[in-house]
Design a protein that fits this description.
Alpha-Beta Plaits, five-stranded antiparallel sheet, 5 domains, flat, 18 strands, four-stranded antiparallel sheet, 688 residues, alpha+beta
């Protein structure tokens, strides 16, 4: 069976740059899914996206899906023929529905009788016939938050669509898509090649557009921009700061990238480095330039979408645009410093953090109380309270109002200008760390205390008002906050009693909800499960559940118990003891003990139960001491000494004795065995 490439292109007005590549990939996935559903073999789709188009090329697409054998069961033979052997109406109707005569039908025997049946071959669907429907379905399934209409069309899309290309090899596939008839005519660069381009075939697409000054392949265009910006910066004697997110956005803004360099006045380098970078990157979508030692230069590189005949005019235009932005930033810097951070913090009472949780001043008070407790436990020193008091002050500055991404960073700068201690100033920035996966963590004790307190307050507060994340919605970033707390505690080696801190935070909230602390803890523990399983160190979900069943108080303690459990499971006794614990758990679950029941040695009648009790009495104290010292591996090794007494007990003792007193006594003995093992982890939860 021969195969050709399928090409779909949607020519649009300028598409939103954020998420452009993801939208194109979703279109490719939708086409592939549709082809797969019909069984049509095809190659891996290639994605194209520019500001004016979304396109997908699916190579090696077969002309049709495979034929398939079909079998249909009709009426019972007893109902298919009359007494004279002539077909009944039921038989004739079934044969007609299959497109054959009754004589062409076969018979199917089952344990319930004999039936008329049809066996045949269904021809595979032709690609040209099913492709329009697949395209329509793929477009309808795109993740577009808000669709728009245009002109007199009833069709809806993210932006108005002006042309559609749908080819199968060299063949045009007739179809109406988004209110337009599909054709083979595309468009090149708006200025360099405005004339229509008739495509001879699907495989000519990328080359034809490149000849028309359009690099349609996103990855190729992104690489070209990166290389061009890097080379131009090197030519200027520096290196470009190329943030991946900005590179993606610029890639989505141009079809024919042309890097050009510009300058701004050197006096703006007196501003904090982050302010200059935020202005150049965030406002202008330019790439800053620095020296090899990291010193910012008064240069920038922008990427034009056109090869200008007069590049100097383009450079001058970009320099004119960036100048007032930097001037505004300089003004904000001067104005903000006319007031102290304390004065800015005094305004926080007028800004709402969350309607039910009060203002940012209220949040600051809660964080101060919680940070003070955390700081005392980790040895943070006396700066924690003042750092917490000033933590949100920079939210009231003009600079942060203009550049929200600089919250914390500007607090650090303003604190240093005012002569605050270096660790305090650093903590004002560190309170927001980590901002994203893989980001740096607070290094100062003050910053650690402040960051954990701030995140726990947000977590517990939002759970207190019953606004926990649902699905993909997480407006307060609770998942990020939980992961941040875990990373700070685990990587910072901070052994904090998390349940106690959550209860303290819940008590500080203006809304009291009994389950808030427990729900927040369950939420954090769920994130911890994910972190632990990602490590690939042999930890299993069952091991994590076994440790959580022992009610650990800190993430660091969970980690320590898991290390000990992995070591224990390598022992030859581990499997037997895990199975014994599971057996004990099942017995106690079916026959619960009365409260306060204790073991009475005078009621023993079997040597095995006496031996088990003696072994317990010998091991209880050293096992408890090892657990108290955090020597979990030692505790489990000591506990493994119960293997022989437990084996003998189950081999020679009837637990469910007819005598109630003996039965209760043996159940109490098993409960004590379970308690001894359960100090580190509930072994009954392990497979075995």
């Amino acid at each position: 069976m021969s195969a050709r490439s399928v090409l779909l292109e949607l020519g649009c007005e300028e598409l939103p740059p954020i998420g452009l590549t993801a939208l194109a990939q979703a279109l490719a996935d939708g086409l592939a899914k549709g082809l797969d559903a019909t069984g049509i073999p095809h190659g891996s789709p290639q994605v194209f996206a520019t500001p004016r188009r979304l396109a997908v090329l699916v190579p090696q697409t077969a002309e049709r899906g495979p034929d398939r054998s079909i079998e249909r069961r009709g009426p019972p033979v007893t109902n298919a023929f009359d007494a004279g052997g002539e077909p009944t109406q039921a038989a004739r109707a079934f044969a007609k529905s299959c497109g054959v005569e009754v004589a062409a039908l076969t018979r199917l025997s089952t344990d319930k009788g004999e039936w008329l049946a049809f066996r045949g071959t269904e021809t595979g669907a032709a690609t040209t016939a099913v492709l329009p429907g697949i395209v329509v379905q793929a477009i309808a399934g795109l993740p577009i938050a808000k669709r728009m209409r245009w002109g007199a069309h009833a069709a809806e899309f993210v932006r108005p669509v002006h042309w559609v290309v749908l080819l199968y090899g060299e063949e045009l596939i007739p179809a109406e898509i988004l209110g337009l008839d599909a054709g083979r005519v595309t468009r090149g660069h708006r200025f360099h090649a405005p004339a229509p381009i008739a495509l001879a075939g699907a495989d000519r697409y990328a080359d034809a557009l490149r000849e028309a000054h359009v690099i349609a392949d996103v990855a190729v265009r992104r690489a070209a921009i990166h290389a061009g910006v890097t080379a131009l910066a090197a030519k200027l004697g520096g290196r470009a700061l190329i943030e991946p997110a900005l590179l993606d956005e610029v890639t989505a803004l141009v079809e024919w990238p042309v890097p050009i360099a510009g300058r701004f006045h050197a006096r703006f380098l007196e501003l904090p480095r982050e302010v200059v970078v935020a202005t150049i990157q965030g406002h202008q979508r330019y790439f800053p330039v620095e020296t090899d030692d990291g010193t910012l230069r008064h240069l920038f590189i922008t990427v034009s979408n056109i090869e200008s005949r007069d590049p100097g005019q383009v450079v001058a235009g970009n320099e004119r645009v960036v100048r007032p932005r930097l001037t505004d930033a300089a003004f904000f810097w001067e104005q903000d410093r006319k007031q102290t951070l304390e004065a800015h913090a005094a305004k926080l009472a007028g800004v709402t953090f969350q309607a039910k949780l009060g203002s940012y001043a209220d949040k600051t008070a809660r964080v101060r109380a919680l940070a003070g407790e955390i700081g005392a436990r980790i040895g943070a020193g006396p700066l924690v309270d003042r750092a917490a008091a000033l933590a949100k002050a920079d939210l009231m500055t003009a600079m942060v109002a203009e550049f929200p991404e600089l919250q914390g960073t500007m607090g650090r700068y303003y604190a240093r200008v005012e002569g605050e201690p270096a660790e305090l100033a650093l903590a004002l920035e560190e309170q927001y760390l980590p901002r994203f996966a893989g980001d740096a963590l607070p290094v100062s004790k003050t910053g650690q205390a402040l960051s954990v307190a701030d995140k726990l307050d947000t977590l517990v507060g939002i759970f207190a008002i019953d606004q926990k994340p649902t699905g993909t919605k997480d407006p307060f970033g609770l998942r990020r906050a939980a992961l941040g707390v875990l990373r700070i505690l685990l990587e910072g080696g901070l052994d904090l009693d998390l349940p106690a801190l959550l209860e303290h935070s819940a008590a500080l909230q203006p809304v009291r909800r009994a389950a808030a602390a427990a729900e927040a803890q369950a939420f954090i523990w769920e994130r911890l499960r994910g972190l632990l399983l990602e490590r690939g160190d042999g930890t299993t979900p069952e091991m994590i559940e076994a440790v959580f069943a022992a009610a650990p108080r800190s993430p660091l303690d969970v980690e320590a118990r898991l290390r000990a459990l992995r070591e224990f499971l390598a022992l030859p006794e581990a499997g037997v003891l895990a199975a014994a614990n599971k057996r004990i758990a099942n017995i106690l679950k079916k026959t619960p003990l009365a409260g306060g029941a204790t073991v009475d040695a005078s009621r023993f009648t079997e040597p095995a139960e006496r031996e088990l009790e003696r072994a317990l009495s010998v091991l209880s104290a050293p096992v408890a001491a090892a657990i108290a010292d955090g020597e979990y591996a030692l505790s489990l090794r000591l506990s493994s000494g119960l293997r022989a007494p437990i084996d003998a007990f189950f081999a020679g003792v009837m637990v469910m004795d007819e005598d109630a007193a003996r039965r209760e006594n043996r159940l109490a003995l098993l409960r004590d065995v379970q308690t001894l093992f359960g100090g580190v982890a509930d072994l009954s939860r392990l497979p075995g």
